Amino acid sequence: MGSTNCEGVSRREGIQLGLAGLFAGGGLVGALKARSVSAATEGNVSPQADRCILYWLDGGPSHFETFDPKPEAPRELRGELNSIATTLPGVRFCEVLPRLAARTEDFAIVRSIRHNHGNHGAGNHYMMTGMPTRIPVSCGAFVSFHPSMGSVVAHERAAPGGLPSYFSLPKMSRSGGPNFLGAKYAPFVVDSDPNKPDFRVRDVVLPRGLDGGRFAGRQQIRQQIDQLLRLNEDAAADPAVALDEFYQQGHQLITSKEAQQAFDIFSEPERIRDQYGRSEIGQRTLLARRLVEAGVPFITIVSGGWDHHTNIFERNQRDVPPLDQALAALIEDLQQRGMFEKTLIIVLGEFGRTPAITRIGSNPKPGRNHWSNAMSVFFAGGGTPGGQIVGSTDQQGYSAAERVLSPENFVSTVYSKLGVDPNKIFYTPLGRPVHLVSDPTPIAELMG
Q1: What is the pLDDT of residue 261?
Q2: Cα dist. 245→90, 214, 239, 357 in Å?
Q3: Please, what's the largest Cα pairwise distance for the chain?
Q4: Would the CA dihedral through 416, 419, 423, 426 be positive or negative?
Q5: Which residue in 96, 148, 154, 258 could disulfide with 320, CB within 3.0 to 4.6 Å?
């Protein structure tokens, strides 16, 4: 599955821009250093969930080819794929979502979120943070004007056993960083593919060729060196002291039973791995389930390649079924483990796609362009009342028409469910007060 958008901007190019490199490539020591200066917080609301798995479909998935098909619209609008009935009377999904269509009692679909940020950079930032961008940004920019949901939750809630509180698989979304909260609340990135037999999590396993005895010996040598007189007599002001602490935490994580168990995806029964699907998104979903089971409060799964300006019907037939399988398996697995009611699951991208089907230049394969007037967002678990469709678009899918909602409402819902007060005020390092969300009103139908 591709990882670039219509601007052709890859993760490598984003790092070259200098806007994401601080967060996206940091190893364990950097992530642990980031967590070390966590401040006490106040004003939390009573949580419905204590963990969240957010699927970010980078590029902007089509609402027509997922949760809001328009079977009665003209063919030039509804497209080539058929719709199928769901377990909700009168509600239809696209044909590529048969597993979810058969269990709509377990989740809710919001069809009426809209905004006016129709490029990738601005749309990503708005939906990931609840804050519109302050200035115009380019479509391919890595944008950070405000902390992301994952970083805020990491700031508010710690994970047990030395685990980082915020993970992102296999990379960080372009607006998934912490902004003024500081690098300590950036996600720990697991960039390797758990679907491969040589899957390893960087910095959580010993380097190849270094056994436990040799590693312990090196730690002892390090401790002996630490007994030497520091150049700076004020240990609190010596950056080496803090660095030693971060390495010690890294050692603790490497030797942590909780961490090793969470990442040991090969210990899963083959039938469970098959149930999730032997795809990248299927096995990353299974890894995310293992992380929330270990107590990690926020995990983002970034799935690229949803910017379907061309070849939209073939690509949705290829890419949506693995997502459909992974989500259905995750819901069933969490229910069987008694974790569903405390785990919030969300699926979205930065916007929807145009009703009009287009062809770019000489490319004969049809697509849809960016469209922020309408999009669909999936909510499950975490106390979300299932079996409902919130809001609607007009008959041809042009715009949110009933129960029109904003990114602020969406983000406030996520925070409220996770016990974070969306009306909270944070202070930047310069002392400037910043509202977490300007409109802290959650979507009432999803709150239970």
Answers
A1: 86
A2: 59, 20, 10, 56
A3: 78
A4: negative
A5: 96
pLDDT beyond 90 at 7: no
Bridge partners of 167, per DSSP, are: 188, 299
Specify the DSSP class assigned to residue 198.
T
Query: Which residues are registered as beta bridge partners of 52?
Result: 298, 344
Residue 201's closest CA among 209, 215, 191, 186? 191
pLDDT classification of 67: cutoffs 50, 70, 90: very high
Tokens in use for 191? 């960039």
- Nearest-angstrom CA–CA distance, 310 and 358: 8
Q: What is the pLDDT of residues 92-147, one digit of tens each?
A: 999 999 999 999 999 999 999 999 999 999 999 999 999 999 877 878 778 889 99
Q: Are 45 and 419 in contact (CB under 8 A)?
A: yes
The H or E element containing residue 21 is: helix 21-24
Q: Does domain 11-446 have CATH number 3.40.720?
A: yes
CB-based contacts of 308, cutoff 8 Å, min separation 6: 59, 62, 315, 316, 353, 367, 368
The number of helix segments (H) and strand segments (E) in the chain equals 14, 16
Buried b (16+ CB within 10 A) or exposed e, 336-346: eeebbebbbbb
pLDDT given at position 205: 53
- 10 Å CB burial of residue 239 (0-12, 13-18, 19+) is exposed
**Which pLDDT value is given to residue 226?**
47
By C-alpha distance, which of 396, 387, 322 is closest to 352?
A: 396
